[in-house]
Amino acid sequence: MTETTEVYSAHLPGFQETAFIKGHEEYQALHKRSLEDPDAFWAEQAEKYLSWQQKWEHVLEYDFPQGKISWFGGAKLNATYNCLDRHIDTIGEKTAYFWEGDDPNQSLSLTYKELYQKVNKAAAALKAKGLKKGDRVVIYMPMVPELAIAMLACARLGVIHSIVFGGFSAESLANRINDCGAKMVITADGSFRSGKTIPLKNAVDAALPNCPEVENVLVLDRCGLGLTLGENESWWHEVMADPDLPDYVEPEPMDAEDPLFILYTSGSTGKPKGVVHTHGGYLLYAAMTTRITFDLKDDEVFWCTADIGWITGHTYLVYGPLINGLTGLIFEGVPSYPGFDRFWQVVEKYQVSKFYTAPTVIRSVAKEGAAMVDKYDLSSLRLLGTVGEPINPEAWRWYYEHVGKSRCPIVDTWWQTETGGHMMTPLPGVHELKPGSCAQPFFGVDPVIIDPDTGEPARYPNQEGVLCIRKPWPGMARTVFGDHKRFIETYFSQVPGMYFTGDGAKYDEDGYFWIIGRIDDVINVSGHRLGTAEIESALVAHRDVAEAAVVGFPHPVKGQGIYAFVTLNTGVGKTDEIKKELVKMVRSEIGPVATPDVIQWADALPKTRSGKILRRMLQKIAAGDIKEMGDTTTIADPSVLEQLIKERVASTA
Ligand code: ATP
Ligand code: MG
Known about the structure:
By secondary structure, the protein is an alpha/beta fold. Among the domains are: 76-329, Rossmann fold, CATH 3.40.50; 526-647, GMP Synthetase, Chain A, domain 3 (2-Layer Sandwich), CATH 3.30.300.30.
C-alpha cells in the first residue's frame, strides 16, 4: 500500500517564537510527564486554567471495567463563574462574541460584561420557573447569542443542559427530551437559513404531546412569526424583562464530578447516546485544548464554524473560549449563502485569526473553485483547523494553499463527543504536518492501536487496528445518561482495561497517527483489510471529483466488494470515461485489491445534520437492501437518500 510521504514544515512564520509549546522536545517532555505523573500534571493545569471554590480530595480515581472515572472529586466550582464572573473586573469591556446573522446585514457583538448580565437574568428567570440543580433542560434553538446564554444560565444554576441541534425533527426531539427527562424546553419561533425562514416551534409543538415531563416552554422571538403561545409557554423577551427578576444569581457550587451537560452523539453508527460531561474535568480539558491546540492569543478572534448543538460548538465556541477570556464568533448562516464566498467574507470582516471547520465544508466550497476565496483579504488568518471526519489529502492541500496561503498550519483534530476535547492533533510550531494525519496525542492521552484479531497492541508501523486509549483524561465522558451499562459495554468491554474508540487507525514510522475510518467500515476484500478513508482519498484526488463515500457490500467471491458513491464537481458531466480514470487512480494509488467493483454517481451524499456521511445507509443501498433503511432521523436531507435509492434500483432493473 502506498504511503503519503508528503510533509509540510512545522516552521511556519510566527509560531516558533511565540507558541505556547516551544518545539517538539518540549512537547515530548510534557507529554511524557502527563502520562507518568498525571496527578501532578493535571493538578498544575487545574490551578492554571480554572478558579476553584474548594480544592479536590484526589486528582484522579478510576476503574475502567466499571466505567468509573473521577477527576478532582470533592472540589467545588461553577462553570459560569469561570467563564464570566472572574473576567468582569479585568476584561469586562472585551468582546466575548461577535455574532453574524444568516443575513449579512445582521450582526452584533457582546462584551463579557453584557454576556454576564444576560446570563444572570436568564438564570434568574429559569430559577423563577422552579428549575434547580440537577434538573434537565432541552435547548432547541438557532445559532443566536441566546443559545449560549441559555446554556450558561443552566450551568449557573447547576441545571443540566441538553442541546438538540435545531435541524432535528419533532420525533428526534421528543426522543431526546424523554431520554433525559427534561422539565423545560427553550426554543425559538423559527430560524433563518439561506435567507429562508424555517419554523422551529412547530417541531416542539409536535413533540410535546409525547413528553409528559415538560412543565415549561420558553420561546425566543427570532423571526417575528407572530405565534400565539399556549399554556405554560412564555416569550423569552417578556420573561427577561420582568422587573422583579434580580440582576444577580449566585453561581451554584458544583462538585467537579457533577454533570454539566448531556449531549447526544451525532448517530453516524446507530442510536445516539446521551453522553454526560462534568463540571470539573470537562471544563479543564476544554480550556486547555482551546488554548494550546489553536495557540490562541488574547487579542485574536476565533471562529469555530460548528453549530453549538454539537460537541465541537460546546467545547470550542462556548466553554473553551470563555474560560480563557477569548473572543469568539457565532455564525448563524451557511457557507453557501448569499454565495459560496460567505465564509471568506466573514473572515475578512471580523479579521478572524484562527478558523476551525469540517472537511465536508471544505469540500463543499472547494467544489465551487478557488476564485471564491481569492477575492478576499485573508491575511488575518494564522491557523486553520479541521474536525469531524478524516480529511482527504486533496481537500487538505486545497485548504492549506487557497485559504491558508501556505503559511497557516492546519490542525487536524481527532476526537469524539465522548472525549470532550481534542485527543490527537498536530500542535502549531511543534509538529510537521502530514495531510490526512492527526499527528500525535494531546497531553494526558495515551493511544494504542489494538490488533482486532489478537487483542494485542500493534507491533510495527502501519499495522492497522482499533484505536484505544489506555488511561483516563479529564475531558472524558462519565456515563451514558440513564444507561451506565451501555457506557461500559460500548467503551470498556471491547478491549478490557482500555477506552475503545470504535475508530480504525494506524501509526507510521514517525509515530504519526492516521484514522482510517470506523472499525465497522473497514472493508475486507479477499482477506485484505481496507480503510474506507484511503479509497475515498484516492477518488477525491481526481480533479473532477468533489466528494466520495466508499462502503463494502456482500460479494460472492471476494467476501466483500467495494462500492463507491461519487459526487462530481459542479458542471462536470457524468461519463464512463471518468469512471475508468477513477478505477485507474485507485489501482495506482492503493493497489488492484482496492479496485471499486461499482461506482455510482451521486448528486449528493446522505449526511448527518453535523455533516458526516451516513455510511450505514450507503451500505444498505450498496447491498440492494433498500426496504428497511433503519433509523433515518439523523439524516439531514432525506431526498438525497431517495434519489440514490431510485438510481440504484434503476441500475439493476
Ligand atoms: P455515533 O457515535 O452516534 O455513531 P459519531 O461518532 O458520528 O456518532 P461524533 O462524536 O460527532 O459522533 O463523531 C466522532 C467521530 O468522528 C470519531 O469517532 C471519528 O470517527 C470521526 N472524526 C472526528 N474527527 C476526526 C478527524 N480529525 N479525523 C478523522 N476522523 C474524525
Ligand atoms: Mg461515535
